[in-house]
Amino acid sequence: MTTDKLAFSTKEISASSRASIKVGDSFYTFEASETRTVNDQYLPSELNEKQEMLEKERAALFDTVNAQVDNQIAELLEYLRNKRKN
Fold first, then answer.
1. What is the dihedral of CA 18, 21, 25, 27, to 10 degrees?
2. Domain range for 66
3. Could you give the 3-state DSSP secondary structure of residue 67?
4. How do beta strands 26-37 and 12-23 pair?
5. Residue 5: inside a domain
6. Angstrom distance (rounded) from CA 45 to CA 64
7. Residue 55 and residue 59: Cα distance in Å, rounded?
8. pLDDT tens for residues 5-39?
9. pTM (2 decimals)?
């Protein structure tokens, strides 16, 4: 027998990314994190849909925070290149 009670509830997902690089004699560490609120109103009959949605949202979240760290590193490297030119 199937009921329409909520099977489970995931309200938020979080991800963080961190990278350290060495440039010359200096070390730089960059970090980004983000928390997202997700729809938690799914019925047991929608459990597979909920799991697929969460997996897609997690992948997108990790892509976002990893890209933020990559951008921070690129900005630092560009700054250091410009500084050396002057």
1. -10
2. 12-85
3. helix
4. antiparallel
5. no
6. 30
7. 6
8. 555 677 899 999 999 999 989 999 999 999 999 87
9. 0.76
